[in-house]
Amino acid sequence: MTQNLSEYRKDFPILNQKVNGEDLVYLDNAATTQKPIQVIDKISHYYLNDNANVHRGVHTLAERATKQFEEARDKVAKFINASDQHSIVYTRSTTESLNWIASTFADQVVNEGDEIVISEMEHHSNIVPWQQLAKRKHAVLKYIQLTSDGELDLQSAEDTITAKTKIVSIAHASNVLGVVNPIKELAKLAHKNGAYLIADGAQAAPHMPIDVSDLDVDFYAFSGHKMLAPTGIGILYGKPELLKIMRPAQFGGEMISSVHEQTAEFKESPWKFEAGTPNISGAIALGAAIDYLNKIGMKNIQAYEHDLTEEILPKLLKIDGIKVYGPQDPNKHTATFAFNLKGIHPHDVATALDMNGIAVRAGHHCAQPLMDYLNLTATARASFYFYNTVDEGNKLVDSLEQVKEFFSNGVSETK
Amino acid sequence: MGLAKLNELYKAVILDNANYPQNKREIENVPKFHMDNPTCGDSIDVFSKVSDGVIDDIAFTGSGCTISQASASIMTTVIKGKKIKKARQLISDFSQLIQGKKISDKAMDELGDAAVIGVVAEFPARIKCAALAWHAADELLNKEGGKDD
Q1: What domain range is A304 assigned to?
Q2: pLDDT tens per residue, range A150-178
């Protein structure tokens, strides 16, 4: 191991508990991450000292709340190297970010017969909004295929993205296959064909440095809760010139500059998108989460998680009867491992692991088209974060051997 | 604690029914009901042949985990040959049982092997797996019963 981030575990008191009599091993980070005390304290501090509504009222608390709310926006902008904090829109989640693009901007640029391109590895949140748009506009939804080891097939991307394409929307990192997609190349390809590139960063932003300017994406969506912040706060980044023409998805208070009986003028971006009282404490806590991640360094997090993958993936692959989905090469795989044990349903695997204190996800991971593509109904998934250790990975591997033993030899022979 | 606690859930009768499910087949030309478990993608079809308010035959097809397959298999053995009204009562009793609610000794007796699945109440994440086939059967019999009345 070149990195050791275990010192940060002490900031996550939730990890220090027994589950079913065993030390908790939390490996469901692709679903949501745990929160460090620094983030929890920030929320507590805000409600104990500063709570007020933002962008209205002249009193001191309103000023404090607004200042922190907008400072967090600046932190998000710097975190993903956006040139301008006005390009950062607060949303509820990645899902809401993608829905807003599909229901407003994309609705404005997609016409009958146009094509929308996604891939076979997308999360439902990056599929269903486009299905709805295609239906509404009589447009065509097309899928980029995958290679045999579960990477995006770039030849298929070149064949699928054409002059008819208006929107390309692709996961930056897969929540199942553990691959990182070449967003920069896809953005070039999209732009060459006159299309817009949207990246779903939900599984990427928590794990690696993100540079939206270098990637040259038109929009980038991600969630706070998968990167140490609370649930209910998400981000939509958009290029300023695109946010300028994009219609708001919601209307009401906060987003207007003036309202008359029959008409209203909207604020500038990003505020024109943020109708109603926003998730103020969530945004401020996201700022605290970003401070925390920056203290460790996103490059260090990426390197450490790569070390974990190099340690754990080969051990997983050595288990007789296991199938790990996605690339088998640790250099091409993130620390998210979807797998199946031959002859054992993933739900049974997950229940068995839970008895050993290990939390994994079992199911279709909100990626049913991918499950169909791989001819599966479900998989188990262990997803690591920087606070996980090699020891925890070893416990997973050992436990999977026990699970196999249990289900192949029946109840009586298990200790 | 470790995997030993699994013995409580995966009792022999459950493993037997999952490995060698009973009445796992289609019945042709009879009503069926399809149901999905949206959390995992498992799905089931339940078929029933009813005459004079009696379930002459009941069967299922589909894929799923040990608990859902075993539960479906046991459901068919419990329901088969019963009157619709009785069958729906048993389904209701089973539903109560797996949610950890107390049911009468008589109902426990009548549920037979299905009573063993009651342990799933201690594994809340798996209650839906146990319930799937029974819910599907209830929907199917509800339609069938409605026709007879």
Answers
A1: 6-30+297-409
A2: 999 999 999 999 999 999 999 999 999 99
